Amino acid sequence: MFVLQRRNRSVIYRIESTIIEQNEMLRKQAERQRLLYATLFLDPKLAETGRNTIFLRLHDDMCFNCYAPTIRELYKLEEQFDISLQAAGAYHYDATFRQTLRDLEWRDRAAGNGMPPREALPADEAMIPYLFTLGPDGQIDALLFLSKQIPVETVSAFFGAAVRRFAE
């Protein structure tokens, strides 16, 4: 009995350690992202509308069956907070990017593919979609990784913080 309890504690400890390590990795990637990202990589159509805009980063290594419901929830928040939501894609083929946007019911929102290249953004290593805003200096101001089960309140808080930053 004692051996079984000890083994269970060991498994739980390993799981907790893995989660802590992954969270730390994502935090470090977000920090590097803020430091390294410059608007010169952005498609000019996206860069000129950086104010009052939240960008959604997408690339072809992501599983959208998992994230599509979460991304569709962003549309409601976009209207609620009166913010422009724009896609910044890094797809090898533009047709695949356009098909992803159709699957996500992106409609007439702005989108650009190929800029910035995936190598320029360390946060892309996480292989999950994320939101970001640009500060007045053209650097990433805030970053939020979208998980499969992210609470709407968390994303709503990100949108609210963005509105406050844009008002400054």
Give a short synopsis of this structure.
The protein is α/β, with parallel strands linked by helices and 168 residues long. The chain is 49% helix and 17% strand. It has five helices and five strands; from the N terminus they run H-H-E-H-E-H-E-E-E-H.
Structure overview:
Helices cover 49% and strands 17% of the residues. It contains five helices and five strands. It has helices at 2-36, 44-47, 64-81, 94-103, 152-167, and strands at 53-59, 84-90, 111-113, 130-134, 140-145. A five-stranded mixed β-sheet has the order 3-2-1-4-5.
Overall shape: it is globular
List the helices and strands in order.
HHEHEHEEEH
Q: Strand order, biggest sheet?
A: 3-2-1-4-5
Helix content: 40-55%
Q: Low-confidence segments, ≥5 residues, pLDDT <50?
A: 35-41
pLDDT averaged over residues: 78
Distance between the first and last residues' Cα: 61 Å
Beta-strand residue percentage: 15-25%
Radius of gyration using CA atoms only: 18 Å
Question: Structural class, from helix and strand content?
Answer: alpha/beta
Count of runs of 4 or more consecutive helical residues: 5
List the helices and strands and how they pair.
Layout: H1 2-36, H2 44-47, E1 53-59, H3 64-81, E2 84-90, H4 94-103, E3 111-113, E4 130-134, E5 140-145, H5 152-167
Helix pairs in contact: 3-5
Notable traits:
single chain; 5 helices; 5-stranded mixed beta sheet; 49% helix; alpha/beta
